[in-house]
Write a structure and sequence with these properties.
Length: 76
């Protein structure tokens, strides 16, 4: 970041990721499957950046946390 740039740095888990990266993070599922997860309410509605949909990385991490909790509940 430049000294005269007023934009604060974005924390790693607040960055925006496109559907291709989300699909890759979810084990290589299709972008269509990411859209299905959004439709089912598993992810929040995406943010549009110049008409391109993006999700917050923190939302992807929260999804992983929910999966872990669900797995732990089914083990009991």
């Amino acid at each position: 970041m430049k000294d005269n740039d007023p934009t604060p740095p974005v924390p790693e888990n607040d960055r925006l990721v496109d559907f291709a990266e989300v699909a890759r993070l979810l084990g290589g599922i299709s972008e269509r499957s990411v859209r299905r997860l959004i439709s089912k309410g598993e992810f929040p509605q995406p943010v549009k950046v110049l008409s391109s949909p993006r999700l917050y990385f923190s939302d992807v991490l929260a999804y992983f946390d929910r999966l872990k909790l669900k797995r732990e509940k089914t083990r009991r």
